[in-house]
Amino acid sequence: MSEENTNVQPTRPQGTDRLVRIALAIALVALVASGWQWLMQGQRENKLEKILTQRLSDFDERNRESVALSKHAEEVTSQAGAKITLLEQKLEESRAQQDALQTLYLELANNRDAWTIAEVEQLLIIASQQLQLAGNVKPALLAMQTADSRLQELEKPQIIQLRKTIGKDIQKLQALPSVDLVGMTLKIESLVDAAAKMPLASERHPRQDTTTKPDWDSSPWHRLTQEIWADIKHMVRIERMDQPEQPMLAPEQSYFLRENLKLRLLAARIALLQRDEATYRVDLQTADQWIKRHFDPQDATTKTALATLQQLSSSSITIQLPDISESLNAVSKYKLALERNK
Prior knowledge:
Structural class: mainly alpha
CATH architecture of the domain at 98-177 and 323-341: Up-down Bundle
Radius of gyration: 66 Å
Shape: rod-shaped
Largest sheet: none
Strand content: under 5%
């Protein structure tokens, strides 16, 4: 009985098997779906991994490029900083040089003004000396005009009054009558040269009468008589003298006469340059008397010398020269003001 109980298996209902199969099928489908999903998930992960790897690679490359660019930018920035530092140093040096040049320019400008004023003062001193010592108006006028032209270069308001003062003195000099000292001196020198060429009155011979000529158409005896008479007239000459005949001078006396005449003329030239009109006229008058007394008045050289002496005696050499001390004082005051402002 016990054996029968052991070998008997329980029976399952058919509905239960069907459910089991369905469950197995669903489980299999779920398993397949899970496997497919896992496979697709793996593919997507692989693809995503590849994409991420590529992107990481690109990012690394870009990062390396960025690092390189950053290093290059740092180098450029460092170089630019060095250049900026160098430029700043040069700018400071340039500013220092500019300040030095500005200071030098101001010093040069002040020195230029001082040099110009000193030059103007020297020109005015020369003009004053020409007027007071030699009485030369033209050199004095030229010196003052040169001083005025030098003041034109300064172009400062303080110079206007100074130029006005100098201009007044220039007008005074221009209004003076002209005395040709050079021309008069040359005439006196020509008289000195003529003193050695003028013949003495004692050496003058009567003029020969060349108007009477033999009558060649007359008879031979008449022509012979005319020739004999002409020879007799040449042997003895009679001439009317308006003044007593001067005695003949020895050679050494003639030499001293001519030398004394030259000395008188040279003394007249010195008096002319010194504006000593009294001495000038006395020397010319003495020279005129000596020429008329001792030299041949009929000679052309003597006549020219006497005419020149007459021209020189008729010319006035004395003029009232102006005083330019006002201009000198104005320049001296301006020069002193410049020295105080240094």
